[in-house]
Amino acid sequence: MEEETQKEKVPLFKTWRAWYALVIGSLLLLIGFFYFLTKHFS
Amino acid sequence: MSRPDWIVLVVTLLGIIAYGLYKGRASKDLDGYFLINRSVPWYIVLLSIMGTQASAVTFLSAPGQAYTDGMRFVQYYFGLPLAMVVLCITFVPVFHRLKVYTAYEFLEQRFDLKTRSLTSFLFLLQRGLSTGISIAAPSIILSSLLGWNILWTNIFMGGLLIIYTVSGGAKAVAYTQQLQLIIIFGGMCIAAYMVIHRLPPHIGFTEALHIGGKAGKLNIVTTGFKGKGGGFDWNDRYNLLSGVIGGFFLALSYFGTDQSQVGRYLTARSLSETRLSLLMNGLVKVPMQFLILLVGVLVFAFYQFHREPVFFNQTQLNLLAKSKYKDSLTTLIRDYDAAEAVRIRERTWISAGAPRDGAAGYGRPENAAGSPPLTAGAMTVERQQSEDRLQQAETRKAGYKATVRRWLNDKTIGGDDNDTNYIFLRFVVDYLPKGLIGLLISVIFLAAWGSIAATLNSLSSCTIIDFHKRFSKKELSKDKEYRLSRLYTLVWGIFCVAVAQLAYNIGNSLIEAVNVLGSLFYGVILGIFLVAFYRKKTGGLAVFISAVIVEIMVVVLTILSRKGIIPLSFLWFNVIGAIGVLLLSEAIQWLKSRRLLH
Fold first, then answer.
1. Which residue in A5, A8, A23 is closest to B279 by CB distance?
2. How far apart are CA B502 and CA B393, in angstroms?
3. Chain B partners of A27 at a C-beta cutoff of 8 Å?
4. Global pTM?
5. pLDDT at B367
6. What is the ipTM of this complex?
7. Which one of A41, B63, B128, B289 is CB 3.0 to 4.6 Å from B218, fit for a cystine?
8. How many angstroms away from the CA of B210 is the closest CA of chain A?
9. Distance, in angstroms, between A14 CA and closest chain B CA?
10. CA–CA separation, B199 and B430 (whole Å)
11. Closest residue on chain A to B95 (Cα)
């Protein structure tokens, strides 16, 4: 499984880990943004 | 509906059917019919995943939910991006390596036949019934709002899509979903623009958000803790913790073990394309849901300056108008309208620039012509009086609405006191121009079709792969398999429309029962898959016994929760089910290894 995973070309980034970091980072940023909106408009 | 609306609706729906028939030509075998020969690019898979998840109720219910309860519902999706990452690391590589048709095939390879058959059967039972409900729910709303015959609405909602789903299989499903989503997003963007456009001239987008925020509708992030020093409210449905943890388990279960989703990303042409589609889904799903909910807040701001119906579901008001409350209702609506006139007048004056404390001005518009400016003190008094009148009108309005709900709850009436799902469509029908109403009704149909078509395809694939082919003693030819797959798609389609009609006849009790049924199995099924992936030494017997025990436990907890004996929101049942199976199977395996169990 690992071998097959390594053969796959990762689009845009060098590794899939970078993609995972992007997805999790975006979620954290969104939650932060939503928290700001909640406070700002309350 | 007007003629232009009908033209838009009919042309859109027929266009989708024709496109599905045209695009759905694939090789006539199981690989072509269910997996499109594993040849689909990531962006089509992404749209297919999104189109499968977003049902008609997503677009009907979410704006109404934001209108009544605020935007905190978006937190329900916070666990989804995390689930996408776990899927890409664990589930997807295994499914691709084993080249399975259904997720449950993997369970036989990992455990045994009975575990595979049990999970596949639970999927067929739960999905078959819930798809019927997902046809019935929007049909009931549309037939109620537009006066359509329910049987025909059910047939159009759940029956027409069968034509291209039977004919073209997964390929027709994926490519129509692509077009459907473009129309759906286009329609929702136009609706959002129209809400802003129809606000008073002095109210822009930001002011509308301030209005929603002041009314508590922009409660996007909530902690779930009860006030100062209060503990965590386990019964609170949507908050940061339940969204991240409960939402994570729910999304992992839905995308990792539900064939209606697994069947979509198995069509990707490579492992990379599958991963990319799931990760992109993780990136776009939360913002998309946020924007749909935002439409609800804008509609809320709109109704601050327009008469809000005393109850958004007119059918229920008609029910009261024919009951013992007939005369009381007439009086109530007259008083309600008077309170609404005051509320709108005062709200408009305050928001249109009534000077803040300490500033001089001309007072109310009707005072301005030829009259001298008021002093700052007089203005303060006038503004305060206006705010008091607004508050009184708001209180009276809430009282009238509560009365209508109480009447509907009267056992002799047997009405439905929840009008959340009617809010957005009522706005569309009452305030959007001709043609656009037809487009927004099409959006509801297309959202339903995308989700139902994918499910029919997956129900058919599980029936033939996990049961017919697996238990058949005769070797089936490719052509026979293909024809059987089409037949099963047709049979499931008819079954789902029949369930929809039954749901209408039996009423809310069946809809509720099916919704509960869905939340009962998800956690346990996920638990079985988690053991399969992460606990290599645990065997089939241990996981099967633990799944049965935990399922019984979840059923008992659900009953206790619904009776109000234990305060626990439904999202936590997925967590309990999944972790319960993991821990119990581990314990049983340990006892077996110590020869304490045989």
1. A23
2. 42
3. 78, 81-82, 282, 286
4. 0.87
5. 59
6. 0.90
7. A41
8. 5
9. 13
10. 14
11. A1
